[in-house]
Specification:
The protein is built from 10 helices and 11 strands. It has 282 residues and is α/β, with parallel strands linked by helices. The relative contact order is 0.15.
Length: 282
């Protein structure tokens, strides 16, 4: 892991410890026993394990001699079945294990949930050539972690920040007076390298987007029948992104030839639950 990433994790952990109240109780934090304990990270459900570097870096914030967790990174991105009863063993001072346990587990659980969910969506579309994208519907403060988990699960990142790509949505069109007016506004900003994605709500609006020579359209809440009609008028240089209410049970219905990508907000705001625990003994 790069020094820059480690510094980011350090700041995140320190901020989280403040939230846990450790900055207000010096007596407690300084009196915890430092005897070494044997730790066991237990995998208790089917999951794709994601976030081990971040999990271990949480503990390293409090260690004078950082824990060497490189041997355990072979398990990062590995899918485990509950029946395997997989455990990852390492040692920590009791004070460090107790103080960082919940934060480290929360992060690992969240990332593994997202990676596992992404893997399920990617598996359903295997062989179609359609890519799965995340969205900006992420947990405040955790976007970098959550988008990393999507990548580990086989998905792709839509955009990291609001200004990476200009996304013209219905509220923009309403405010500026229509699709063309909203597009003209973003073009006038002068951000030469920023590409544009335009949210489209019906076939007539799609035809207007084609006339405007737009490169990337998001077919929002289109029915499979409307998507089939949309692909018959698709220019060769236009990207079709399908979005809106896609679930693991329905996504196959939208896997129509001509669709390039599907964006799924639930990858990050409603992932499946996974079960991990950390136990230690002397």
């Amino acid at each position: 892991m790069s020094l820059l990433t480690q510094e980011f994790i350090k700041k995140f952990v320190i901020s989280s410890l403040e939230e846990d109240g450790f900055k207000d109780n010096f007596f407690y934090i300084n009196q915890l026993p430092n005897k070494t304990v044997n730790c066991s990270l237990k995998i208790k459900s089917d999951l794709l394990l994601a976030g081990l570097p971040y999990f271990f870096e949480c503990f390293n914030v409090m260690l004078d001699n950082p824990l060497d967790y490189k041997p355990h990174l072979e398990f990062e991105g590995t899918f485990f079945k509950k029946e395997e009863k997989k455990e990852i063993h390492f040692q920590l001072p009791f004070s460090v294990a107790l103080t960082l346990e919940r934060l480290a587990l929360n992060l690992l659980n969240r990332m593994s949930s997202i990676a596992t969910t992404t893997r399920e969506f990617v598996s359903v579309l295997e062989g179609t050539g359609i890519k799965i994208l995340d969205t900006r519907k992420t947990t405040p403060g955790l976007r970098a972690f959550e988008k990393y988990a999507v990548r580990l699960g086989g998905g792709y990142n839509h955009r990291m920040h609001q200004t990476d790509v200009w996304m013209v949505k219905d509220n923009h069109k309403y405010f500026f007076g229509g699709l063309k007016e909203a597009v003209d506004y973003f073009k006038s900003i002068g951000a030469f390298y920023n590409s544009m994605v335009v949210e489209i709500h019906d076939l007539e609006e799609l035809k207007l987007a084609i006339d405007l020579n737009l490169n990337h359209v998001m077919l929002d809440n289109f029915t499979p029948e409307d998507i089939k009609k949309a692909v018959t008028i698709k220019p060769s240089d236009m990207t079709y992104e399908v979005s809106g209410g896609l679930s693991i049970d329905t996504i196959k219905n939208y896997a129509i030839e001509g669709v390039d990508v599907m964006s799924v907000g639930s990858l990050t705001y409603a992932p499946v639950k996974v079960d991990l625990s950390l136990k230690y003994n002397k």
